[in-house]
Specification:
548 residues; alpha+beta
Length: 548
């Protein structure tokens, strides 16, 4: 099971009529919920309300009242309860007022195997529209709406649809465009429609097979050409539409950097894993230290437990000096008992200035913990893994690429700010280019994976001399690659600008792996269902099975 959450709000409609704005905020949130695979009868609502200062003016008092009445009408008709919310009557500054605001959120659980996303999935699909009916007062015909919800839910449950999207305030043109953008699949209308008319509560459905249902009207079909064909004389280029769609906010939130023509070496190492476990352990122990700002410990605990390990976590407490001493003693004990040390991602100490991961590194430079880690690696047959912030800590300690904690100097590799000078959060293609490490024992050399990244300082930097040594040793574990599997400096594929498109490296013996991509967020089959491709690196299984 999983959780789905949707929202609805149209500020323009709400300005014209707070009542209708609230009605369709709730309707849109429920419609989107149904489009994802939810059963509207099992949904819950919560509202975010924000209005101008009411003062002593009856008209101003009437706006939140009208909005709440509108929301209540939908709740009563659909028999869905609101379970809380947030409200404010302070949205005025001098003569400026916020529009009447009631944002509706619809929440519920769903079978993750039945979840449907809204981008077109394949070429040659029939696409239908399921229209909604309204009264003369522009209020939904709720009996019709409930019938539509039941039909869409039934089609999704029976596996007859590939994608479902809602239309809402901007009309068919907006919805079809976005459905095309997702996988860059084109669309051809069967006949001309009213493309920009608001259609609250209506659906567009991409079907797996032809659907002979009276309520459904054929809208068109998906095509291989990257274009939207409105008519024979009106054809829109999909790439140009995407460019126009992205352009308005590019100056505010840039997504691109200057293009580089530099070719990047596709690294492939023939080095094989040469270490084997000294003692077999049915359930190896994993220690995950938790620092201020760590936020991936739950995902990693789940990943390692799913792989068959026993996981212990411990929070580094630093409120008082005695807490620090106690935490160091506890960390030392946990390291001595563990087979695997896992440094998780997050934003340690709020991503401290001049490089995140410094706080974690400074803790492990404590003499007791340094000795414990060296013993773990050199005497106890231990493994280490660091992801994102944990990778940064391994680099700043010297554990990567050198395999031991040491003082840093200017010749050593580091991780620094992304080329784009801000945080990047997206999916990337990565390729396994070395199997030196046991962490990659269960995948093939050259195998590609789609992995989530989320970081502001993920650019791997090293001198040419260091890079040649790492490549020779097989220590470059993974590279960012394009859709053809080639290492790339294009920000679309290499989100931070890492030299040689490096995503992950290992120590010389392969015991320690550091990488930027959050493998713990994508290994489950029910995650990122709308994204095709291999997302499970079997990283955690490999680490656990090393000891079996």
């Amino acid at each position: 099971m999983g959780t789905i959450m949707t929202y609805g709000y149209d500020p323009y409609l709400s300005t014209l009529s707070p009542f209708h704005g609230a009605v369709y905020a709730v309707v849109e949130s429920v419609t989107k919920y149904v489009a994802m695979g939810g059963d509207y009868k099992k949904a819950w609502l919560t509202f975010q309300e924000y209005f101008e200062k009411l003062r002593n003016e009856p008209t101003r008092w009437g706006k939140p009242l009208a909005a709440l009445l509108g929301a209540y009408v939908v709740q009563e008709k659909l028999q869905i309860a609101a379970i809380g919310g947030k409200d404010s009557m302070s949205g005025s500054y001098n003569d400026l007022d916020v529009p009447p605001t009631l944002v509706s959120f619809c929440v519920g659980t769903v079978d993750t195997g039945k979840v449907v996303s809204n981008e077109f999935k394949k070429v040659g699909s029939k696409v239908y529209i399921l229209k909604a009916k309204y009264t003369k007062d522009f209020v939904p015909n709720f009996e019709n709406l409930k019938e539509n919800y039941e039909l869409v839910h039934k089609l999704i449950k029976e596996g007859k649809v590939l994608s479902v999207a809602t239309i809402g305030q901007y009309g068919i043109a907006n919805t079809i465009s976005k459905m095309c953008f997702g996988n860059k699949i084109g669309f051809e209308f069967e006949d001309e429609k009213c493309l920009f008319k608001p259609r609250y509560g209506a659906f567009i459905i991409e079907a797996k097979e032809e659907l002979n249902i009276d309520k459904l009207e054929i809208l068109g079909n998906t095509i291989s050409e990257k274009e939207i064909r409105i008519s024979k004389n009106e054809i829109l280029d999909l790439e140009e539409l995407i460019k126009l769609w992205e352009e308005p906010l590019e100056k505010v939130f840039p997504t691109k950097t200057a293009k580089t023509e530099n070719k990047v070496e596709n690294i492939i190492s023939d080095k094989k894993c040469s270490i084997t476990p000294k003692i077999k352990i049915a359930k190896p122990r994993v220690f995950i230290p938790i620092f201020p700002g760590t936020n991936c410990e739950y995902d990693l605990t789940k990943a390692f437990e799913d792989a068959g390990a026993i996981v212990n976590t411990s929070v580094f407490r630093n409120l008082k000096p005695e807490h620090i001493e106690e935490s160091i003693e506890e960390f030392e004990r946990q390291i001595n008992e563990a087979q695997i040390i896992m440094l998780p991602g997050g934003f340690s100490a709020g991503d401290e200035p001049d490089g995140s991961g410094k706080f974690i590194a400074s803790v492990f430079r404590n003499a007791k913990l340094t000795d414990a880690i060296h013993k773990h690696l050199n005497e106890q047959d231990g493994l280490m893994l660091g992801i994102c912030n944990g990778f940064q800590a391994l680099i700043k300690l010297g554990l990567l690429p050198y395999g031991k904690i040491m003082d840093m100097d200017d010749t050593m590799p580091t991780l620094t700010y992304n080329d784009i000078a801000r945080h990047q959060s997206k999916l990337v293609n990565t390729k396994v280019v070395s199997k030196l490490s046991p962490w990659f024992n269960k995948v093939d050399l050259g195998q590609e994976f789609i992995i989530p990244i989320s970081h502001g300082e993920g650019k791997f930097v090293a001198t040419e001399e260091v890079m040649k040594e790492l490549i020779k040793n097989g220590q470059i574990a993974t590279q960012y690659v394009d859709l053809d599997g080639n290492a790339s400096m294009d920000i679309a594929f290499n989100p931070n600008g890492s030299v040689y498109a490096v995503e992950g490296i290992t120590s010389k013996d392969g015991r320690i792996l550091g990488k930027m991509g959050h493998s713990e967020r994508s290994y489950r089959a029910d995650v990122l269902r709308n994204v095709p491709g291999n997302k499970d690196q079997k990283l955690f299984e490999s680490g656990v099975e090393y000891y079996s």
